Amino acid sequence: xxxxSISENFAYPQFCYAASKNDEIFANFKRYDVYTRILEHTSxxxxxxxxxxxxxxSRLQFTTGAWRNFQRNDSVGNAAIHSYQxxxxxxxxxxxxxxxxxxxxxxxxxxxxxxxxxxxEIGIGYGGQCRLxxxxxxxxxxxxxxxxxxxxxxxxxxxxxxxxxxxxxxxGKHIYVENDYDLVISNYAFSELxxxxxxxxxxxxxxxxxxxxVTWNCLxxxxxxxxxxxxxxxxxxxxSVRAEEPLTxxxxxxxxxxxxxxx
Length: 263
Hints:
Blueprint: H1 11-21, H2 23-27, H3 33-36, H4 44-54, H5 64-71, E1 82-86, E2 89-93, H6 95-110, E3 118-122, H7 128-136, E4 141-146, H8 148-160, E5 167-171, E6 181-187, H9 195-204, E7 209-216, H10 219-223, H11 229-235, E8 240-243, E9 253-257
Parallel strand pairs: 3-4, 3-6, 4-5, 6-7
Antiparallel strand pairs: 1-2, 7-9, 8-9
Helix pairs in contact: 1-8, 4-6, 6-7
C-alpha cells in the first residue's frame, strides 16, 4: 500500500481503530507511545508559551467559562495534565490542549468569525481542535478529513463529549465531496502529505475555502516531494505567511488567507 503521509506508519491508524473500539484503550489512548509519537506530545514548556501568547493584552480574552470548556478536552483519554498560572489561580490542563486554544485564539483574532459557519479540517488528531472551535464559534457544519481509522477515534471522542450534530467525517484518501467552506484549517497535516494527495486537497477543499489557516512544516517537502511554502503561495490566491509563535521547529510558519480586513 502506497504511503500518503508522514504519519501513515500503519501502527498509528491501527492504534486509532483499536482505541475507537476497545473501552480500556480508549480510556487511556492519550498515554500510549504509539499515539504520543504523532500527537499529544506537546511539552510543558511549549504549553506555557502557548498560554502566554493567548493571554497577550492585544488579544481577545477567553472567559472563565470558556477555559472550563477547554479543559473538557482532557476529560477523555487520560491526558497528561500540568498546572499553569491563569489570572492568579491554577489552571489544570494538558499542554496539547493549550496548543488547540492558541490556534482558536489566532482564529478569533485574525479572521471575521461572524462569517465562519462552515469549517474543513485536514488532519484531525482525535478531534480536539474541532471540539474547541465548534463549542466556541457558531459553526453550522464542520467537515473532518483524515484516514478512516482516525475518523473512527475522533467520532467516538466527539460523541462522548456530546458533539454529535453537524459533524461530517470524510475519508481523506478518497474525497467524495466538493463543497465551499468559510475556513479550512490544518496544523502540521497538509504539509505532511504527498504532493499527489496535496493536489487532491487543493482541488477539492483548499481552493474552495474563503479563508485558511495552515500551519506548515517542511517534512513532506523534504521527504515526500510535497509543496514548498513558495509554491503554495502561488497556488492559493491572496495567501501570505505569518510567523508560528512560539516556533516549534525551524522553517515552520502559518499560511493564511481571508484574514480580518484582508490583513
